[in-house]
Design goal:
The complex is a heterodimer. Helix content of chain A is about 75%, strand content about 0%. By secondary structure, chain A is mainly α. In chain A, helix 2 crosses helix 12, helix 3 crosses helix 7 (about 155-185) and helix 11 (about 255-260) runs antiparallel to helix 12. Chain A starts with a helix and ends with a helix. Chain B contains 16 helices and 15 strands. In chain B, strand 5 and strand 6 form a beta hairpin. The longest helix of chain B has about 40 residues, at about 1-40. In chain B, about 45% of the residues are buried. The chains are: A mainly alpha, B alpha+beta. The interface of A and B includes residues 17, 152, 249 and 250 of A.
Chain lengths: ~300, ~425
């Protein structure tokens, strides 16, 4: 009888080191941020701060109304546009990669993986300096040779948004392509054969066979990418908001807005409150998606 | 057997992680124990005294650190000073400022962070160690820069500001007024070559123009001045010049253009000069052009580099005093002027021939009469981003300067409120 009781605890003992590690690295900082958000830690009370309750949250939600809400809306548009484009383009490219009799598949895949392998920071700066630069960038060089005048890629809001989407796609597509490629290869070829025998065309096959079988496989990847896109900081910051070389476009997302408004003030109590608010938004998002997904499964 | 092996390996991994942390703590504790012993026994008999260890952090060029180390090695063996490099010095100080085992005793940095650190309570006024009369021979602007809320927190050593540099091969006659400069730019900016370039939309560089109109970004009472008529006039006037420069106006583009001889002139710091000389540019230095509308020269920010003392070092008072006394002598100023061409703050240094003959140093000395030190109030931290947003939207986004300035002023006041 004792042995059985002991065996129950073995899985927990094995996961304990991992759990401790996650606890220290992830849970503790979040809890500490929550603690600081309830205090008045700022330049004037750097070491001698004390708890002041929810004043920071009041400040965050009611003072930041105009800029914060606009940034939040823009972040949702940014995530939606990027996810849609990513899935469509990745699906197209992955389908092309899986065409029967394609030679040099390995070479294409290696080249397509290249953006993912390069450090993001450097890639983004290269895009900014080498491609989007108004006087010396490659894109304007090409346009000039074709007879068009210079385009200011990063100076006005809408064009800068488009440029950032392009860079994000460049960086994120390899991951999606890889996932969808793997998923496509795992679909049983016999389905397509029987569909062709019964007279189904290409688009009907895609709609009725490929997409439904793809959904469960790529769902986790899509969710991860959605969250990564939502909290994408590097691209918007490095392209348009870097201190010392801002471009005049105001395409703040929630996280770059927070960085510029809160972190810069050295008011850690206030910044922590905003971080916790964003964290809560992401948690609600994640629960909503899981709930929706579960509902879908039950329906099927 | 396999289980045993894996358990042993995991244990070894954990131990190595713990061991790594353990060592550094031990070292720091040794240093503090030494100096505590010293201050305790210093009051008693003058027997075999343990030397006091002083640690100074820096984040600037190696050449400067070496000069500091050389100068302070003269205090050995009673006082052993180690000048150590610390990356991200400003952030590190915020984290460990009040922790005696990890914080340095002093640090070498620009004066603009004094306000923040003073409010955080980690700085000790310099006048606790050396008398105020030490500063009598210093350039007054530098002592103002080192003062926050009537207390002097920094011992200034040298200052730097921006210079008007031009390529002697490309520019024969240097414009003396800004209207002349504009005409020069109109005539000479074609085919990827530019008459004049500068980082036109950053706060640090544009403030020279704003000061020429008697405007300001923030004053020493922490009041932003972005919506003043003077600031608006300066920004409106400056916009004409932006039309003849690359619109991005970032550091890399501008310095590369000047380095490759595609820009005739620029406004830059003396730190660029070694690189330019290496690229074979025949550099000339000229006084800043004078703005016609106000008859004042473009007056950029000046950064004053010097030593500050942390509060925890008050228990090593004698050693710190000796270090400060050593650095307030003209020697360090003269040596730094010779090695890196910086302008010393001590007027006595300018009696030295080597300093008198250095063109860059003397130009900076003249500029010090009109240069404005960067504000050292904590509220300045939020002004950089706001000012830059203002300039970018006007210069690159074609926003109306008056509307943009009013909005920026509002945002500045909100941000300053948010700091509390």
């Amino acid at each position: 009888m004792k042995k059985r009781g002991y065996k129950k605890f073995i899985p927990y003992i094995y996961s304990l080191p991992g759990l401790i590690f996650i606890g220290l690295m992830i849970v503790f900082p979040i809890l500490y941020t929550g603690y600081i958000s309830l205090t008045n830690m700022n330049v004037y009370h750097w070491f001698d701060f004390h708890i002041i309750g929810f004043q920071n949250y009041k400040k965050a939600l009611f003072v930041l109304d105009t800029g914060f809400l606009a940034a939040f809306g823009r972040t949702i548009v940014w995530t939606a546009v990027n996810m849609m484009l990513q899935m469509i383009i990745a699906f197209l490219i992955a389908s092309l990669l899986n065409v029967e009799g394609l030679k040099l598949k390995g070479v294409y895949k290696t080249i397509l993986m290249f953006p993912w392998a390069m450090p993001g920071y450097i890639s983004i700066l290269l895009w900014r300096m080498g491609m989007f630069n108004t006087e010396f960038g490659l894109l304007n060089n090409w346009l000039n040779r074709l007879g068009f005048s210079d385009v200011h890629w990063l100076n006005s809001d809408h064009i800068a948004f488009g440029s950032s989407v392009v860079v994000n796609l460049w960086l994120a597509l390899p991951f999606m392509i890889m996932i969808i490629d793997g998923a496509l290869q795992s679909i049983d070829k016999t389905y397509y054969e029987s569909a062709t025998i019964e007279g189904a065309g290409y688009f009907v096959q895609v709609r009725q066979i490929t997409l439904p079988l793809l959904k469960p496989i790529i769902a986790p990847a899509v969710i991860i990418t959605m969250f990564t896109t939502f909290k994408q900081f590097d691209i918007i910051y490095l392209l348009t908001q870097q201190q010392g070389s801002k471009t005049g476009a105001d395409i703040h997302t929630v996280i770059t807005y927070t960085y510029e408004k809160a972190f810069v003030t050295n008011n850690y109590g206030y910044s922590s409150a905003i971080s916790i608010i964003i964290f809560m938004i992401l948690i609600i998002f994640s629960l909503a998606i899981r709930g929706g997904k579960k509902g879908g499964d039950v329906d099927e | 057997m396999k289980k045993m092996l894996s358990v042993l390996l995991i244990a070894a991994l954990c131990l190595s992680v713990v061991a790594g942390c353990g060592k550094t703590n031990g070292e720091n504790q040794d240093v503090t124990v030494d100096s505590e012993d010293e201050s305790a026994s210093g009051n008693t008999a003058q027997e075999v005294q343990e030397p006091t260890n002083i640690i100074i952090w820096y984040e600037t060029q190696e050449a400067i650190a070496q000069e500091l180390q050389k100068e302070l090695d003269k205090l050995a063996p009673e006082i052993i000073v180690s000048v150590e490099r610390k990356d991200k010095l400003t952030e590190a100080l915020k984290l460990v400022g009040n922790d005696p085992s990890s914080a340095p005793d002093m640090y070498f940095f620009a004066h603009d962070k004094i306000g923040i650190y003073a409010e955080m309570g980690i700085l000790s006024p310099i006048t606790n160690f050396i008398p105020a009369s030490t500063f009598d021979d210093f350039i007054p602007m530098t002592v103002d820069a080192a003062t926050y809320k009537e207390q002097i927190y920094q011992l200034p050593i040298y200052f730097e500001s921006l210079l008007f540099m031009y390529n002697k091969e490309l520019m024969q006659e240097v414009p003396t007024t800004t209207d002349e400069l504009l005409l020069y730019m109109e005539a000479n900016t074609i085919d990827g070559n530019y008459g004049f370039v500068e980082q036109h939309s950053t706060a640090y560089f544009s403030v020279g123009w704003i000061h020429a109109y008697d405007g300001f970004i923030i004053n020493d009472k922490a009041q932003p001045g972005l919506d003043r008529q003077e600031t608006k006039d300066a920004i409106k006037y400056h916009k004409q010049f932006v039309n003849y420069m690359p619109i991005d106006g970032d550091y890399n583009t501008m310095t590369t253009l000047f380095k490759e001889g595609r820009a005739h002139s620029t406004i830059g710091g003396p730190w660029l000069i070694p690189d330019l000389v290496e690229n074979g540019i025949d550099i000339g230095i000229a006084p800043m052009p004078i703005v016609n509308a106000t008859s004042k020269a473009i007056s950029p920010f000046a950064g004053i580099q010097g030593i500050c003392v942390l509060k925890e070092a008050e228990n090593k008072k004698e050693a710190v005093t000796k270090v400060l006394e050593q650095l307030s002598k003209p020697d360090i100023g003269i040596n730094l002027a010779k090695t890196i061409g910086s302008a010393p703050v001590n007027n006595k240094c300018y009696d030295d021939d080597a300093v008198k003959n250095n063109e860059i140093v003397m130009t900076l000395k003249e500029a010090s009469a009109t240069a404005v030190p960067m504000p050292n109030v904590p509220e300045m931290d939020v002004m950089w981003a706001i000012t830059e947003n203002l300039l970018s939207s006007v210069n690159k986004g074609d926003k109306d300067p008056v509307i943009a300035s009013d909005e920026a002023q509002k945002k500045a006041l909100e941000q300053i409120e948010a700091m509390k």
